[in-house]
Specification:
The chain is an alpha/beta fold and 153 residues long. The protein contains 6 helices and 3 strands, in the order H-E-H-H-H-E-H-E-H. The protein is 39% helix and 10% strand. It has a 3-stranded parallel beta sheet. Helix 5 packs across helix 6.
Length: 153
C-alpha cells in the first residue's frame, strides 16, 4: 500500500496531507499546544517519535508511559487534567489498566530520542518514518534539527 492509498482520519479541520512545524522560544507553550492537539484527536497516528533532550517534562512523561501501556487519548487527557493529584504516575496507569479491557487498549508505538546528536537525519525521516505504513507523528525539540527536517518534509 503506498502512502497515497493510506487513509488518515485527522480532525476535519486538519488536512490529511498536513506537515507541521511548531517553533517558539523556551517556555512559550509549544509542548502544551501539541499535547492539546493530540488529545483533542486532531491527528490520526499510530507511531509517535519524540526527539527531545527534555523528554522528562511531565507532559512527555504522561504521553510516553500512557501510550506504551496502551492507554488512549481520552484516558491520557484525564490523567493530564488530574496530574497534580496523582502521586505516582506508574501506579495510576496500572490502576487504569485494570479498568480497560485489553481489546479496548490503544496501540501506539513510542520512540524517544533524548540525545540531540542521535536525532535521525532528514533523509532518514523521509525514507523510514514518513513512507512506512505507520502513521507517524514526529516531535522535534531541537530548533536546528527541526528547521533542517522541515526542508525535507
Amino acid at each position: 500500500m503506498s502512502l497515497k492509498e493510506y487513509k488518515f482520519n485527522n480532525n476535519q479541520l486538519i488536512p490529511n496531507t498536513l506537515k507541521m512545524l511548531i517553533i517558539g522560544a523556551t517556555n512559550s507553550g509549544k509542548t502544551k499546544l501539541l499535547f492539546d492537539m493530540i488529545n483533542n484527536d486532531y491527528f490520526d497516528f499510530n507511531r509517535l517519535i519524540i526527539c527531545s533532550v527534555s523528554s522528562s517534562q511531565p507532559i512527555y512523561e504522561i504521553l510516553i508511559k500512557s501510550y506504551r501501556n496502551g492507554l488512549n487519548n481520552s484516558v491520557i487527557k484525564e490523567i493530564y487534567n488530574h496530574k497534580d493529584e496523582i502521586e505516582n504516575l506508574d501506579v495510576e496507569i496500572e490502576r487504569l489498566l485494570q479498568l480497560i479491557p485489553k481489546d479496548k487498549r490503544g496501540n501506539i508505538e513510542v520512540i524517544v530520542i533524548t540525545n540531540a546528536n542521535e536525532i535521525p537525519s532528514p533523509e532518514s525521516f523521509k525514507s523510514k518514518a514518513l513512507h512506512s505504513k505507520a502513521k507517524t507523528l514526529i516531535i522535534v525539540e531541537s530548533p536546528t534539527k527541526a528547521k533542517t527536517i522541515a526542508r525535507f518534509l
